[in-house]
Design brief:
Elements lengths: L2 H14 L16 E2 L9 E2 L12 H11 L7 E4 L6 H8 L4 E5 L3 H13 L6 E4 L3 H6 L12 E5 L5 H4 L1 H13 L6 E6 L16 E6 L2 E7 L5
Parallel strand pairs: 3-4, 3-6, 4-5, 6-7
Antiparallel strand pairs: 1-2, 7-9, 8-9
Length: about 220
């Protein structure tokens, strides 16, 4: 076997082993995802390996929910770039009461809907096949209840933080300003995004963790003293 063939063989083995699953870039194999904790723990989620979808790796998702601790309980979840729905479903499994999920891509929405239906979460979820930026500018169309507090997940394609930075910042600022007190925001980016650009809260209200290649920022909206 030549040197080049050995390299190609290793690359093929990496793909077959699921090496590009989750937050890692590149073409992905069709593999299973699972719910990490709560009442739905161990449940499998459908994921077809589409390049448009970059589900957060299981170990990163577990770390995120350890970081936010009990923040899911009693919250209304907003999953801005829902993909497989793994983040919203994880939150519902851990005590969130309802969820709004937005996903633009038709095939991905079909997969998302199948995940929601398979776990009997249809009654507590509203799914929107729409552009997230548009829906953020027209929140009345989402019919999000004014209460309870929200748990907002923003896990878009990483390039959005670069190519659509202004839109991303404006969207997050608007959502933060209009969220009830005690709402929590969880952002996933890569190292190209500077969390300091988000003028949402004081620096000591930001928790930032690295789970390469993912960078996670958690913001909490506190009520007035």
């Amino acid at each position: 076997m030549t040197k080049n063939n050995r390299k190609n063989d290793k690359g093929t083995q990496k793909k077959r082993s699921g090496g590009n699953v989750g937050s890692l870039p590149g073409e992905k194999e069709a593999v299973g995802l699972r719910v990490i904790g709560g009442r739905l723990r161990g449940s499998r989620l459908q994921y077809a390996g589409d390049n448009r979808v970059r589900p957060m790796k299981d170990r990163t998702r577990e770390a995120v929910f350890n970081l936010i601790s009990t923040a899911s309980r009693g919250k209304h979840v907003i999953d801005l770039f829902a993909g497989t729905g793994a983040l919203a479903i994880e939150a519902l499994s851990r005590g969130a009461v309802s969820a709004t999920l937005i996903e633009k891509h038709l095939a991905t929405m079909r997969n998302l809907r199948a995940n929601i239906e398979s776990l009997a979460l249809t009654d507590c979820c509203r799914l929107f096949q729409a552009d997230t930026f548009y829906m953020a500018r027209h929140p009345d169309e989402l019919q999000i209840p004014p209460n309870p507090p929200r748990l907002v997940f923003c896990s878009p394609p990483y390039d959005f933080y670069v190519e659509k930075q202004t839109e991303m910042l404006e969207m997050l600022q608007h959502l933060y300003e209009n969220a009830p007190d005690e709402s929590v925001f969880v952002l996933e980016s890569d190292k190209r995004f500077d969390f300091g650009l988000l003028q949402l809260v004081e620096d000591n209200d930001l928790r930032h963790r690295s789970y390469p290649p993912a960078e996670i920022g958690v913001y909490r909206k506190f009520g007035a003293d």
